[in-house]
Amino acid sequence: MKVRHVAVACSSQENADRFYGGILGLEKMKSSTLTGELAKQIFDTPHGCQFVLYAGEEIAFEVFLPEKMPEKAVPYVHTCLEVEDRNNFIRRCGQSGCVVKRVKKNDSEIIFLSDYDGNLFEVKQS
């Protein structure tokens, strides 16, 4: 089994491009529209919206662009990213305006960051 994509919501195309295209270096593969009817059937909301698929070799994000951002439903939801150079990646994220949280746990450090819309990512060294 493998994960095909992770779905998140962003408040604007600009924020999505800056984080998923710029920081994560993913390619914008396609843009499409989720109709209100389909949104109701799948997500139990009548609000359709645009969405964009960003993808790389090992990961893809389906980024929904709703007119109004939903409230965060569950505080524990996050995506874990494994990167080759965690320190450099975190530095770039911080310089780009992402919120970085460093949490000490025993003798190690857990690092989380938020994209421009509050989507939470744990970052691990490969």
What order do the helices and strands follow?
Answer: EHEHEEEHEEE
Percent of residues in helices comes to: 10-25%
Note the total helix count.
3
Distance between the termini: 20 Å
Using DSSP, what is the number of strands?
8
Under CATH, the topology is which? 2,3-Dihydroxybiphenyl 1,2-Dioxygenase, domain 1
* Spatial ordering of strands, largest sheet: 1-4-3-2
Q: Which whole number gives the mean pLDDT? A: 94
Strand content: 35-45%
CATH-derived architecture:
Roll
CATH class: Alpha Beta
Structure characterization notes:
The chain is of the alpha/beta class and 126 residues long. The protein has one domain (6-68, 76-125): 2,3-Dihydroxybiphenyl 1,2-Dioxygenase, domain 1 (Roll). Helices cover 23% and strands 40% of the residues. It has 3 helices and 8 strands, in the order βαβαβββαβββ. It has helices at residues 13-23, 36-43, 86-95, and strands spanning 6-9, 27-34, 49-55, 60-65, 79-83, 99-105, 108-114, 120-125. The strands form 2 sheets. It has a 4-stranded mixed beta sheet. Strands 5-8-7-6 form a 4-stranded mixed beta sheet, with helices on one face. A hairpin with a 2-residue loop joins strand 6 and strand 7. It is globular. The protein starts with 5 loop residues before the first strand and ends with a strand. The model has no long low-confidence stretch (mean pLDDT 94).
